[in-house]
Write a structure and sequence with these properties.
The structure holds two protein chains of two kinds.
Chain A: H1 2-9, E1 15-26, E2 33-44, E3 48-52, H2 59-66, E4 76-79, E5 82-83, H3 89-96, E6 99-102, H4 114-123, H5 131-141, H6 157-169, E7 175-179, H7 187-204, E8 207-211, E9 223-228, E10 231-237, H8 238-244, H9 247-254
Parallel strand pairs in A: 3-8, 3-9, 6-7, 7-8
Antiparallel strand pairs in A: 1-2, 1-4, 4-5, 9-10
Chain B: H1 7-14, H2 16-53, E1 58-62, E2 74-75, H3 76-83, E3 88-102, E4 109-117, H4 127-131, H5 133-136, E5 141-145, E6 160-163, E7 166-174, E8 186-190, H6 191-198, E9 212-213, E10 215-220, H7 226-236, E11 241-245, H8 246-260, H9 263-292, H10 294-303, H11 307-344, H12 352-379
Parallel strand pairs in B: 4-8, 5-7
Antiparallel strand pairs in B: 1-10, 1-11, 2-9, 3-4, 3-10, 5-8, 6-7
Helix pairs in contact in B: 1-11, 2-8, 2-9, 2-11, 2-12, 9-12, 11-12
The chains are: A alpha/beta, B alpha+beta.
Bound molecules: adenosine-5'-triphosphate and magnesium ion (MG).
Amino acid sequence: MVRSTLLNSMTETDHSVQIRQLNYFFGQADLRKQVLFDINLDLPKGQIVIMTGPSGSGKTTLLTLIGALRTVQSGSLKVLNHELVGMRKADLVEVRRNIGFIFQAHNLFESLTASQNVEMAIELLNEWGNKRSKAVDVLTQLGLADRVDYKPAALSGGQKQRVAIARALVNHPALILADEPTAALDKKSGREVVTLMQKLAQQEGRTILMVTHDNRILDVADRIITLVDGRLETDETLDNFVEAHDPKALDRRMFIM
Amino acid sequence: MRRRTGLAWANLSYERRRLLTAIAGVSFAVLLMFIFRGFENALIDSQIQLLKLLNGDIILVSKLKQNMFVPEQFARRRLYQAQAYEGVEAAYPLYTTTAYWKNPQTKRIRPLRVLAFNPTDPVLPLSGIIAHQRELQLPWTALLDARSRPEVGPVEAGIVTEVAEQQVKLVGTFVLGTDFASGNGNLVMSDQNFLRYFGNLGPDEDRRDLNTVDVGLLNVRAGEDIDRLAQTLRERLPEDVNVFTKTQFMQQERDYWQNNTSIGFVFSLLATMSFIVGIILVYQILYTDVAEHWAEYATLKAMGYSNTYLLWIVIQEAMILAVIGFLPGLIISAGLYQLTASATGLLMKLTVTRVLNLWIATLLMCLISGAIAVRKVQATDPAEVFGT
Ligand SMILES: Nc1ncnc2c1ncn2[C@@H]1O[C@H](COP(=O)(O)OP(=O)(O)OP(=O)(O)O)[C@@H](O)[C@H]1O
Ligand SMILES: [Mg+2]
């Protein structure tokens, strides 16, 4: 039902995400506080977009809205051809299955092996027969072939985050949402993880929206957007972004929080 | 092949020590429930085990004898009168009294219940009694209950000691068991010996003869309607006796113990408390699992798992705890039942019904805990795992 009405209006079906006049509020009545103001944003398929901005500017909130993790109050928010505004919670759960989430914390079950953690995602698609080989495949692509049967306790921080990425990518989601995926990693592992995400996205034409404060990884982006005080401040290609922000100013901005 | 990743078991078993604590907790609750239910039924069943074995279809007792504790007799004449009725095949008197038994080793005096009848009458057809019919007819002889309390001393044929301050020789043993009215055990003797021991007591003591009977047993001819015959006797016999079918008699005794004493209440209360303690224990375990893994569970929700699935995980954990906690509890209970039975002579029976009932109680216990704990999972907001 949602889909059919959308198909007519969605002439730009080459967009994974299409946001129009999105406002978002936390709290009720007197405590009601607006955190997102009139957001308009299109994410074309296959694009890697990095979102930056000061702490508290609403980046995570926007990510959770696009990820169908919150019910949306106003405007229009189309994700993978579904209009999320006004959608029931049960339908939101369905939409999430097409999105890969990568969090700052890996959130792996300590009691399950790397492979089993990834298999949990595959089971969502009701695929049972080849789930193990699929899990091993994706872990291998992420350089964990010899770690598939290790539990998280026996993995390094970077390896754990790669397992979490494997879990997010195994179902080939059309959209990947990542919130500071490298924050818990050292420079080298962070770089590795981002490069892997970039490689997979390019191979399979996935859209990636990644929040990060880490200006060392900005180069993987096709596009950088900046959120300030709940408003979309700038939206530029990487080259423009680097030109417009001299590195010192950028650094200052990143570390204001 | 649909093989889900066994998340419930993985999470439960990952923390060995917590799992062991959980199993021990469930087992303990199960054990307590078994013990309390067991004692309740043992205490009540023990009260009627003698009645159950008595060979009578219809029972006559004095109007004043409300339960087996009350030492009231009725005139033996009533038995003869009853016997005259069409359908009554035989009538047997049973004499009972409390007597002091001297432990042959410690010389300590302990009260016992004496059951006396004509050894040639099939009053209490137990193998040990039938086998020693002949010896019972000798003067100053008796049979001692092998399930008597240890306080009475050794129970074996050939022992010579004193009962009611007169010499007695044990000519054998039988197997019955104690109850509240039996004191430390049961002593069976012939009616003639009963007269020898208790017929010559001083006037202050409870002097007995064979003209007053404690319990009268009527055997009814095969094919006769026992209820109707009992009804007839109830109407026709003088008011000083009560007439019961055996079933009614046992039920009355059971009711007495269940309703007029606090046994039923106390033990039900104790069993209920064990049940609640079990719920709290299991809840603690399940809640800890959920609370420690809330970010992972929330991630599952973000991935697209529904609340129902998470509910199912917690329910599975609850059921696993029920299964692996119940078995040790059952096995230990079986051992304790045996121990209690041999130490006290109480009827501790592990019936299939009780095992099933308590299994259901255990499952319920775990499911209730799971249902409370799961509210925590359902409340986890997948949006919260971002940015933390
Ligand atoms: N659950 C919530 N209830 C109420 N207010 C919230 C909630 N979550 C976030 N906020 C507020 O909304 C604003 C935006 O928060 P958000 O987490 O989106 O910022 P952010 O850009 O991700 O910041 P950071 O870079 O520190 O992660 C903040 O002012 C925050 O205090
Ligand atoms: Mg954030």
